[in-house]
Amino acid sequence: MGQSRLARVEIHIDLTGPRGHRDAIYRQLRAAILAGRIRPGEALPPTRELAQRLAVSRTTVSAAYDRLTAEGFLAGRVGAGTFVTASPVSAEPVPDVPGVRPLPEWDAVPPPPAPFAPAPEFDFRPGVPDLSRFPFDTWRRLVTQRLRAGQADLMTYGDPQGHPALREEIARHVGVSRDVRASAAQVVVTAGAQQTTDLVARVLLRPGDLAAVEDPGYPPPRLVLGARGVRVAPVPVDAAGIVVGAIPAGTRLVYVTPSHQYPLGLAMSLDRRLELLDWAERTDAVLVEDDYDTEFRYTGRPLEPLHSLDSRGRVVYVGSFSKVLSPALRLGFLIAPPSLVPALVKARYLTDWHAPNVEQAVLAAFMAEGGFARHVRRMRKVYRARHEILSRSLASFADFLTPLPSSAGLHLSAVAAADCGPLVRAARRRGVRLYSLGDFGVGVRRHGLVFGYGAVATERIEPGLARLRALADEGAA
Fold this sequence. Notes:
By secondary structure, the protein is α/β, with parallel strands linked by helices. It is built from 14 helices and 17 strands.
């Protein structure tokens, strides 16, 4: 039967029914074993312990155990205990009852994407970094150092605003790399852009208020706002960025990706940035600036973030470590005007209190000793090479795809004259994972493809595109 599990199972037994206690214990244990709630190899509580908990005699529990043992469900080991031997025969049926219904806003929210198991053969999903190059050895050393030090403060409730050392490092990093002038007091550590959008909406918007998002754009913030009862208006994007003149009157919040528009990859022009800031001041609105993928810029001079141009406290700056390090860390940050910080910290406290303390302390140490900057430089070289290979290889699709100019990030987009949905679905069936540009639209859906190159190995780009080309030639496009 193998080794038993380390802990005994906790069992709930209901003795309020009409039958005797011995029969109730027997029937409920037998049902739990058959349904798989108690698994083979798990140990049951000693008869004395279970009898005390149920306030019955030990003889009653022993009789139930003996019957289950005689029927082959349990086996006793001298000096070790009583263990489950039988395997479940079927899944326990789920009661078919109507139940409580959620608010109708949640019907419009799609289910979360399912994890890929196994991973696609050619993974061109956007927004996914190369996790094989995560600095595992350094990260393991830093985690071990903190756990060996026995820092009890890391194992209790933390600061809703974030670990002080990490906030200091974030303020220093964005000040050096992006000219974002802010103190650690303006930094709030979050789980990423989605939580930032939720926090800002909580402290600034009421149900029925109007917010605007780029169209096409990053879907989660739009869904977060809609689920909170906020009316969301899609605003078109042109070559210079979001069309400010198309933002509806009464808009209280605009979510933008000006440095590397998602998914088109374009950068908002300086004139358009200034126009957007002037609009926000005139209309008393807030701009949520997602400075997406800016660590990985390959050509050209980076444009100033909206936050650097903002002198009136209208911009909440958003950053994340998901694309640079790993999405599993669930660590990001916002930099807010001082007037908003207290309310945002309260909102963070009320939602999930704080980010994981150990991960925050490790990331702070990783940044302080220069590991984060080294990792960014190393990965920038890797992604630049993939960007160049992908750009060059897309020439074989010139008959129906036109790549959009992009000099940063982890993806390239290309527009098409016809719907690429059939090609995307055919490619997924053949092990090539990518997205249609239409997946990111709200109003008028653009035709095209979005190619991520963070998760696909450099040497796999050309074979993956060759398979996609063959599918297109077969007529899937």
